[in-house]
Amino acid sequence: MNTHALEFRNVSKVYETDGGDRLAALDEVSFVIEPGKTVAIVGRSGSGKSTLLHMAAGIDIPTSGDVSIDGQLLADLSEGDRTLLRRNRIGLIFQFFYLMQHLSVYDNVALPSMIAGDAPGLVEPRVMELLERVGMADRSRDRVQKLSGGEMQRVAICRALLKRPRLLLADEPTGNLDDENGRMVMELILSLAREENGTLIYVTHSPDFAGMADETMQIHSGKVIA
Amino acid sequence: MIRYFQKALGAHFRAGRSLYVLTVFGVALGVASVLSIQIINRNALAAFEGSVTAVSGEADLSVLGLTPTISETLYPEVLATEGVAAAWPLLRVEVMLNRGELVQSLERRVFLNIVGVDFYAPLNLPWAGERNEEPVSSGPDRIGHSWLWEEGWCAVSPAMADQAGWSEGDTFDVSLGSRTTKLKVGALIDFQALSPLASPKLVAMDISQAQALFGEPGQIHQIDIVLEEEVDEAAVQAELQSRLGKSVRVVTPAQRGEQAEGLLSAFRLNLTALSLISLFVGLFLVYSSTQASLIRRREEFGLLRSIGCTPRQVFAIIVGEVALLGALGVALGIPMGYWVAEANVEKVSATLSNLYLLEEISSLELPWWLYAMGIVIGIGGATAGAILPALDISRRDTRSLLAAFTLHEKIGSLAPKLFGCGAAILTITLVWYLSFGHTWKHAGFAMGVGLLLGLPLMTPLTVQATCSRIRVRRFSLGYSLRGLGVRLQTTAFAVASLAIAVSMLIGITLMIGSFRTTLEVWIGTSVQADIYVAPTSWRGKGSEGTMDAETIEVLTRHASVVAVDRLRGFIGYSSMRSNEDEWVNHRIGLAGVEMGLSNGDVRFPLLQGDRDEAYRRSTEEGAIFVGETLARKLDVWVGDDLTIHTPGGPRPFPVAAVYYDYSTEGGAAAMDLRTMVEAFGPGGINSVALYLQVGQDPERVVDDLKASLPDAPLQIRSNRRLREQVFRIFDQTFAVTQLLKGMSLVIAVCGIALMLIVLAREQVSELALYRSIGATRQQLFRIYVGKGLGMGALGLLLGLFGGILLAALLIFVINRAYFGWTIQPSVAWGAIAQQCATILGAATLASLYPALRASRTPATELSRENL
Amino acid sequence: MPVCILLLLVALPLGGETEWRTAREDYAWSFPEDHWARDGYKTEWWYFTGHLEAETGERFGYQFTIFRVGLVGDRPEIASSWTAKDLVMGHVALSLLPDPTGRTAATTGEGKNGGRHRFSEVVYRASALLGGFGTYPDSLIAWCRPPAGTEGDWRLTWNGTGFDFEMKDDGRGFEFALTTRPIKPMVFQGPDGFSRKSHGTTSASQYYSFTRMATEGTLKVDGRTFPVTGNSWMDKEFGSNQLGEQQVGWDWFSLQLDDGREVMLYLLRDKNEQIDYASGTLVDASGETRYLTRDEFDLSASGTWTSPDGITYPSGWRLLLPTADIVCDIEPELADQENRSSIVPTMRYWEGAVRVTDTAGQGLGQGYVELTGYGDSSRPAL
Question: Is A142 inside a domain boundary?
């Protein structure tokens, strides 16, 4: 029984195209990531980075092979259990932020707790703490439509961290931001992940940002090549 | 372009099956509801016309009485009139078919229309052979004049014979008044061969037997006339009218049709208006589904535009697609409408005979123009619903189509303005009505239209304002509602269409409830006797259904009876001088009662007139009481005279009082029995009301009376039973209305389902996000059910508002203008609560499938699109 | 032996309860009462034909017939004025005859209401409102309403010595009121008024005639009134089964010869157009009758006439009756004297005025001829 934060063992994911062709998004991928590590995944578009991240979040399930988180084999979990795992132990950050337009900054951050049914009173300090740390506390009542891209991503980071996830997954978090904002966001993610003692895996195109991680994993045509 | 259209259509249909199915269904329901009502309306008239055609098909003119019967001595007069090529007398009586049990429930009575004809007159009757036999060429060859001498000889339609299992030679009992008569099936006459819509319940007898068994000596009902070719029809008509006198009218078949049409116009108009509301709701559905599908496909259109498609072509693609859906809806809606009509024709038919004393509808036909109407409504309506969104999309520039769509915000910012418009429409309509609109007969409908336009316009802001006030603390109902306010574009339509349907539902429920309560109060005062006795066959129509003297004697002699009220009733005609200075006849119900009955004065709750004075004048001066409906229709009030046709000619009767009357729509008047005898000649009593000694149990006396008149075809009912029956008829009368309510609710609920499916599609990414950050499927399912419930609640809220306005409109404006009924408003809380629960339940039900679809959204959908 | 075309209209009642009386050789005649309706017989008719002439020279042939068709033996006991035991049927025809002298310049005949031969008909149930039959000794024998569109009644009455009758049909534009007075006594057609119609005994009728009656009255055609005088022939016949089963029609001749004699002939035809039965009566100038047998006379058609409907009738005959020293030609005054019923569209028969001449064309007398059962559709539907 290992206690890796994340382990992929011979994981393959094959999609069937409309024409009946089979397309391997991941091909016999195996790796382990230890708790507390930060790992950057790099590779070209279509190399399988996002698929890998979805597997890690339990959103998608492999065609073959095993994925385990904190030693828990995802294949052993029901769909509902995987949802709960995501709810409580995984935080997700996206390229397009995915904020709810109709909710305020505060409510967007608090959304995971709403979904989990946590008592609103207990959640509030945590929300404010996170917003404080990303410098958005004074905007908590604002509608998210009014925010800039960088601000949106900072709110999204707060949402991802709200439940103190053990595993933080970020899919090109800077992809939709300019360099300056990108760097600020990247630094914020790394520092918060480290402060929260979480394991962080992020996908990026930028060698600069990739260099900020403890480890780098390169993917090419569905295979880990470094 | 066409090729693209075909290819794209197939692909979109596969991708959005449920969306399209719901759209088609919405159109189909809209078409079906309008069509079914039109079918019923059309056939209500056709039933009348069909029977007219079967009996008087060849006639160019008919002589009809303005009194219950006409003297047969008019027949030779008609024959002697120049220009008449042939004429024959008719005697028409409605009798009840006795089927085993003597006392039948009112609803299950079967009436036969006896037509007494002169078999030796030049009639072309389609004699039919025995079942499965070749038709015979002419009757007398085979029948040998049995109609003259064989007692009870009659000819029935093959359809009736089949239905009742009769063969030639079989006998059956019919009753008219307190008499029971045995008739014998002597031959078959296929009336339907003359007119497919003729009632199969027509029964032909020789006029001699019909008169002896069911009529009065020397009296007939009608004379049909065929004119010589090339004579001036109008001149002969005028000549006949002056020759025969004022107590008859000489009319063409078209004029008879018009008369029935006029009689039913209010009834038909109301049903049509209600069905149009269903259609309106259906069009909302089309509009919003078009809108939804366009939002989904905006990029496709952007792309088409960018590769050189003209706005016109884009417009054509959109409208073409919707027209196709409309066509599918029509294909589904026409049979559905027919089916709905068929399923309900019996109820409408009952209403026609209860309320209008007209022919029952026994079969349905669908003339070509009804198909055409269905097609126009379905395709035209759908296209109309799509035109605005299509114009909007086609006029947009390519860049804004390819960029993220901003219509949501647009409608959000428009919401206050729309609300203002809606409120303005309501206000303007109201002000218009109060200032001058109220003098116009159709003002009520104009206001209804105002309401139907105003309410939807007010919906977006209401939804927005309500939803934005909700504080979201949990991922539950509040969260669902909050989301509704954001997707105004989609939700406002669903809510608005539901609101319209609910308005109709609540408005009609309130109206019917109020009417029912009013009726209860009215019956409470006017139905005072302890026991009511009437022949089972009596429907207030003919004068022939009388009770014989011995029967009345038996009833009166019972030890517990202290007072007896006798009623003689028939259809008569009043005569009014119109604005154009012509005499216009109105069909009215005439009742003769014992005006002098002690304590009988409560029978007529008076709207106008001094009670004591009115009763004194009715017994001493031959004055009459006029029912409210008639008073309003003819504008005849206390102090005026009402001219009524009597066998001695038109005669003015002073009006002593106006009473609340809910018995017929056509209007009624009552007079003392002695006045009636004096004016109309002696005649039988049609029903009897018995007052018992205090403390007697009416039910026990009813049993006594039944026992002493064992075989009499009488309905002997206690006060309580009579009331129950009155309400059964009342409920039956509104059965179709209930159906229409139901249909528009179904359409509205479809709207909710549709909108939720649209939402589930639009919000794929959002749903995926929820899934990815840990929302379970059950949670998403609940969120969506919550949305459905939320839309239901909002629709209900607005609908309650609209419904109360509509009810007020129906009660105070429309009913008064069209039917002349004063209805006291009252709220049937129970019914309203029940309907609210139904609406919310239906909304919830409607959201189950979309919720299921939403909950199945995979988290992997996330990366596909922006939120 | 006039028309029993009403068999077209009314067949024998099947399974009816009425037992009709039949003609008998020993019928006990009683006059004048027997001029009135004889109940119990299925059919009965009063049949007048004649030639009339106006003062101004216009010549007319007329037919006035009232039929009684028994529906049931007794009036049903039903409390209605519409109940009836008989039908009353009237057939009236007027022929506007050509004027050989040319004096009248053919001023009548092609009016808007019809041609030179006009036919008017009515059928009503015999009921208080529509028509009926009187009883002796009231003068009224029969009456009925005129055709629709016309005022007044059609009536047949007994005036003490002869018959008066009147009719009116505004639609066809003619009316007349005539009074008759027998010039010669009444004669029985057949021994004791028993007229056999076939070789069996069953088909027969009671039959008598006034073969020559002075006639006068007024006649109105297309608005013009003519005082007229002339000569009529009257038949009264009643019975319950006049035709043999195999018979399809008949030819009937009534001839009034200028020498004071009258001849009545009837020939019943079978399905093969062969004469099935024939007989006749010769009345001499004094009124004595002699009944003629089939082999006593020869009647051969000399021409044909085809109706608008395509029915071909014989038209013109040569009669040889050597035992009475009669050789004559019988020529229709008008070719088209066909009565075409509109009430019973299949009912068609030829009934018209004829002229009797010697073989050289010299006038010998006048008469009426009836031809029934010609053409498929006009055959009685037996």
Answer: no
Domain extent for A178: 6-100+164-224
A54 touches chain B (CB under 8 A): yes
Provide the pairing of β-strand C224-241 with C247-257: unpaired
pTM as predicted: 0.74
**Alpha carbon of B67: minimum distance to chain C alpha carbons (Å):** 20
Residue B410 sits at φ, ψ, to 5 deg, of: -60, -50
Cα–Cα distance measured from residue A26 to residue A29, given in angstroms and rounded to the nearest whole number: 6
- Shared domain for B67 and B53, answered yes or no, is no
- What's the domain range around B513? 407-519+729-867
Q: Provide the pLDDT for residue B358.
A: 60
Average pLDDT score over residue span B298-311: 73
CATH of the domain at A25: 3.40.50.300
B653 and B673 co-located in one domain = yes
What is the percent of chain B where pLDDT is above 90? 14
In a domain, B543, yes or no: yes
User: For residue A148, with 0-12 CB atoms within 10 Å meaning exposed, 13-18 middle and 19 or more buried, which class applies?
Assistant: exposed
CA distances from B44 to A7, B277, B815 (A): 78, 21, 21
CATH number of C243-382: 2.40.370.10
CB atoms within 10 A of CB A75: 12
Closest CA to B275 of B34, B30, B502: B34
Residue A85 lies inside a defined structural domain of this protein:
yes
Longest dimension (CA), chain A: 53
My answer on whether B300 and B237 are in the same domain is: no
B244 and B268 in a single domain? The answer is no
Instruction: Give the nearest partner residue to A59 out of B486, B765, B772, using CB atoms.
Output: B772
Task: Identify the sign of the CA torsion B818, B821, B825, B830.
Answer: negative
Query: Is residue A113 assigned to a domain?
Result: no
Residue B243 Cα to chain centre, angstroms: 40
Q: Are C60 and C225 in contact (CB under 8 A)?
A: no
- Helices and strands: H and E segment counts in chain C: 1, 25
Residue B98 inside a domain? The answer is yes
- The answer to whether position B168 is within a domain reads yes
B215 & B364 share domain: no
pLDDT in tens, B813-828: 887 777 777 788 888 8
Interface B-C: count of C-beta contacts within 8 A = 96
Cβ contact B373:B65 at 8 Å: no
Of B473, B775, B858, the CB nearest to A115: B775
Q: Which 8-state DSSP code applies to residue B602?
A: G
pLDDT digits (tens, 9 = 90+) for B359-386: 666 667 777 888 888 888 888 888 887 7
Q: CATH 2.40.370.10: does it fit domain C33-239?
A: yes
* pLDDT number for residue C376: 66
Crossing angle of helices A105-116 and A120-133, in 10° steps, is 140
**8 A C-beta contact, residue B32 and residue B336:** yes
Number of domains in chain A: 1
Q: Are C152 and B148 in contact (CB < 8 Å)? A: no
pLDDT, mean of residues B345-360 = 68
Q: Do chains C and A touch (3 or more CB pairs under 8 A)?
A: no
